[in-house]
Amino acid sequence: MQKTPQAIQPILRHIGFYKAPPVSAVTPVVIPPKTEVIEMVMSGVVYFEEGGKDREVGCGALFWHLPGEKTIYRTDADFPYTCLTVHFTTSADPVRTVPRLSIIADHLRTKELCHEILRAYHNDSIDRAILGSYARHRLLWEAHLGTIQNTAIPRPPALEAALVFLESKFMRPEIGVAELAEAAGLSEPRLHVLFREYLRQTPYHMLTARRIREAKWLLSGTSRNIKTLCEECGFANVETFYRAFKKYVGMPPHRFRACHASKLRNVTE
After folding, report:
1. How far apart are CA 157 and CA 162, in angstroms?
2. Torsion of CA 186, 190, 194, 195, to 10 degrees
3. Do 93 and 214 lie in a common domain?
4. Considering the domain boundaries, does residue 268 fall inside one?
5. Do 143 and 99 contact (CB within 8 A), yes or no?
6. pLDDT for 102-129, tens place per residue?
7. Which of 56, 174, 178, 179 has the largest CB neighbor count within 10 A?
8. Which three-class secondary structure state does DSSP give residue 269?
9. Overall pTM > 0.85
């Protein structure tokens, strides 16, 4: 009986967080032999050549690089990308099992997954081999789901335009529902209808929730002071931030930080 070839067992080497500088391109890294690198975009804009054309992607873009390929490097100087990076080495050159680029449509799931993996990596009590297996299989699963979901009926282009605008501009306090509707080319009532139909929430709720999610990430992963942090998340002032945060999270920001501060050692600074 012929023996089945032994599967390549990837070994986790490093998990990190990368924040691109405000330039149009950074120096890419060429993936060496017997290595695979996964990059999951958490925010910002990335330009990636696909099928001879440039494609603009943002939060939820999942890149799976094999030997000889380059890491992502082209971005928007006004909205540079941030991403989770996961490095594995293997006993032989890995074989592609998912597309190089797939998309996780749920931005909240993307953020939460990145945060979970980063926190676990900097927790010395967690076994690295088990974490590596979990991270790789979870990201493999997300890449597979992204491939399947890309074949589904897409949401209306106007709604997608509003979501892209929301993701790229939520950190600006002057952005509200009126600006989302204008970016989508819709009236505010029509925008509300589309949000209710496809997303089961209002534009205002989604915008505020997006700002709160960013605040939760910064509170637990950085040492930024509250005033600076709330401005970076798109809140007009500290008082507004405190009210919204307590309403959505159930506790004030300083208490959330005390409960959820991780061992990230300021990697997001």
Report:
1. 9
2. 90
3. no
4. no
5. yes
6. 988 787 788 889 989 998 998 889 999 9
7. 179
8. coil
9. no
